[in-house]
Design the sequence.
């Protein structure tokens, strides 16, 4: 059974979801690519931010 | 008095014939196939790769396939899984997927499978929008 770390899972999840969001929610290839990058950054950025928030809540 | 014939659309093209919902149904059954049907090869290939990889990773991580409606959460999970189209039915037929989630990775896998189904529905609706002309 494949055992990925939490962060690796998040990276893969963000990559696939951003690909679909980019293609389906924008009209032109250039805008699709930019929106995909934007979604990917938001996914990863929010995970890092909330991880630190939870770390400080726990302390 | 002579009259000029009225064109059917603003661009002068004849409206496309055929079943309008075909890309939606085909796109649901096979990820990206709705776009292939509309000759959007690169978009279709990317959607296919993203959704199939996500589903395959979910299965490899020991994700569970929902099969019943015991409670509301199972029902929602089942609806998400159904979005995978043929991948879901084939996996069910061969009894793939874990019966119970015992480790954290398997829980991630279950979520991967549900989300790949939901993304596939978005992709199929996008193919339908392209077919009806709402999206270029």
Sequence:
């Amino acid at each position: 059974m494949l055992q990925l770390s939490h962060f690796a899972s998040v990276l893969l999840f963000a990559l696939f979801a951003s690909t679909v969001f980019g293609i389906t929610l924008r009209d032109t290839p250039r805008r699709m690519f930019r929106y995909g990058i934007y979604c990917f950054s938001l996914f990863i950025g929010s995970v890092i931010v909330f991880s630190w928030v939870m770390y400080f809540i726990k302390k | 008095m002579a009259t000029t014939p009225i064109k059917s659309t603003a661009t002068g093209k004849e409206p496309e014939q055929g079943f309008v919902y075909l890309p939606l149904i085909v796109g649901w059954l096979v990820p990206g196939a709705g776009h292939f049907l509309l000759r959007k090869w690169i978009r279709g290939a990317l959607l296919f790769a993203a959704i199939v990889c996500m589903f395959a990773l979910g299965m490899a991580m020991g994700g569970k396939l929902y099969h019943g409606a015991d409670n509301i959460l199972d029902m929602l999970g089942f609806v998400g899984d159904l979005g995978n189209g043929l991948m879901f039915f084939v996996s069910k037929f061969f009894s793939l997927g874990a019966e119970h989630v015992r480790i954290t990775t398997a829980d991630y896998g279950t979520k991967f499978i549900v989300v790949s189904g939901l993304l596939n529905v978005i992709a199929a609706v996008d193919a339908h929008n392209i077919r009806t002309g709402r999206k270029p």
User: Anything to note?
Assistant: The mean pLDDT of chain A is 95. The interface with chain B takes residues 1-4, 6, 9, 12-13, 15-17, 19-21, 23-24, 27-28 of chain A (CB under 8 Å).
